[in-house]
Amino acid sequence: MGGRKSQEKNSKDASAALESGTVIAAHGRHYLVQAGEQKLQCVTRGKKSDVAVGDLIRFKRTSPNQGVVETIDERKTLLYRSDQYKSKLLAANVTQLFIVVATEPGFTDDLVSRALVAAESAGVSAHLILNKTDIVEALPKTRERLQVYARLGYPIHEVSARAEPEQTRAAFMPLLEGQNTILIGQSGMGKSSLINLIIPDADIAVREISAALDTGKHTTTFTRLYQMDENTAIIDSPGFQEFGLYQLSEGMLERAFREFAPYLGHCKFYNCHHLTEPSCAVLEAVKSGEIATMRHQLYAQLLHESSQKLY
Ligand SMILES: Nc1nc2c(ncn2[C@@H]2O[C@H](COP(=O)(O)OP(=O)(O)OP(=O)(O)O)[C@@H](O)[C@H]2O)c(=O)[nH]1
Ligand SMILES: [Zn+2]
């Protein structure tokens, strides 16, 4: 991740004794850091656990394969996950989010839209991956369901990890090149199948990480980063991480729904919440069908949730 050259240059100045690396997995306050060809176990000082997978960090080596995190480089982006009504760090420096959905089993619009809100608010571009196109009976209905996202301008890529592995791999590679991509999806969508196509030795890497971080049986519950080349990485996030959206202000929320944009500033009240106000341009667009009801309902729900935040 990031240019190795700039890391080298930086490490020559003030922080001469520090080395740099990329956080490739996190488990509690234990981090696995890739530094060149080497993987090290790093910890943070004290109780701090503000390091995320994808972070570029400076560490002090304490033994041949261990270190202490000293500083975190400025992040380009930051995604949060939801944890007991709080937002915790999920991944740093992600440039694009791929949401894997499938013809079967069905996906949940609520989760897809929450992921899109997370991406928009973090400044991360979002794509939808429709997997299992070989289940042709369910294809027309699924495409129809995805229309709402296509109309919003989110690219949709159709693949079949099982029936067309080579084509699927070939479709992915140019999309991933030069990007830090996080892959998310509800259980059963085929995310693991896709990761295994893209990273053939992913299983080995996961076992290595799990052993290094001593995650015990939690082998599939941690987020990990696979460095594909110097400028390309892919992050696999287990299950369907519910994104932490509690930290979003009302202003950030309304801007995270890209279809609201033409209407913002056109409501009767300048501080309109777009919930029940008279002469609300957003509500009028919902009524006329220009904004999908499902999307507006989620906006209202997220506004409610962020008002319930615990901190
Ligand atoms: N028909 C079909 N089945 C597929 C395809 N891709 C994956 N599957 C199957 O879908 C099931 C779920 O795939 P996984 O890759 O394990 O899905 P996952 O999203 O990682 O699911 P979890 O491990 O539960 O998070 C498996 O039985 C796969 O063999 C595909 O393109 N077509
Ligand atoms: Zn309004």
UniProtKB/TrEMBL annotation:
Stored Pfam families: RsgA_GTPase (PF03193)
Domain CP-type G intervals: 83-243
Co-factor note (free text): Binds 1 zinc ion per subunit.
PROSITE patterns found in the cross-reference section: ENGC_GTPASE (PS50936), G_CP (PS51721)
Coiled coil: none
The keyword Cell membrane is assigned to this record: no
CDD domains for the chain: YjeQ_EngC
Annotated compartments: Cytoplasm
EC number: 3.6.1.-
Cofactor(s) of this protein: Zn(2+)
Role according to the record: One of several proteins that assist in the late maturation steps of the functional core of the 30S ribosomal subunit. Helps release RbfA from mature subunits. May play a role in the assembly of ribosomal proteins into the subunit. Circularly permuted GTPase that catalyzes slow GTP hydrolysis, GTPase activity is stimulated by the 30S ribosomal subunit.
Name of this protein: Small ribosomal subunit biogenesis GTPase RsgA
